[in-house]
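Today's session is about reading a structure prediction critically. Students often jump straight to the picture, but the first step is always the sequence itself: look for stretches that repeat, for charged clusters, for runs of hydrophobic residues. Only then move on to the predicted structure, which in these notes is written as discrete structure tokens rather than atom positions. Here is the chain we will use throughout the hour.
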Amino acid sequence: SESLPVAQRFLELFEKVDGPIIVPSGSCAAMVRNFYTDLFKADQGLVERARTLSERLYEFTEFIDRFFGCDAIVGTCEDQVTYHKCCHLLREIGIDEQPLKMLSNIDGLRITPMNRADVCCGFGGAFSVKMPDISSAILDEKLDNIEATKANRLVAGDIGCIYQIQGGLRRRGSTTRVLHIAEILSESIRNSKTGKVTE
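Below is the predicted structure for this chain, in token form.
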């Protein structure tokens, strides 16, 4: 597999550092945690190393929720947003309502529910390249649902989803911005005189 040397390099790099490994993408977290052992199945040594590493690897919102709690970030952001539930984050990592709880803790932020928020955006990595027509059809439905919310910004927790949705919105001429949840949490802290991460 072409991904094998990349995965081995990932192990080599992150085995050199101590402490939690925080990744900004549910897809990346799912790959390491759920699929590295299968990728390395021909080498039991690599399987064990992958298992050990995955025990301290967390998706961004998962880390905040586990070690600080969903209400730990206190900030302000006067805006209207909607939230896309990314496939791998939801189905592989099991993160569902936690990001929404974090967003709801931001003063002034209005969260408009999106119809079928948990439905795929059509990216799926190589899927969007191998099956572009199906990918585009899935994306179009997602874009329709986003635009129906009238939100100024869409918040998501996966880089692939952000890339896919932002590209689709731009092609439509939409002014809706797409950003990672870490960005809006950071923005809310900067906006507030009392913004902080509580312990």
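Discussion point for the tutorial: The CA atoms of residues 114 and 146 lie 6 Å apart.
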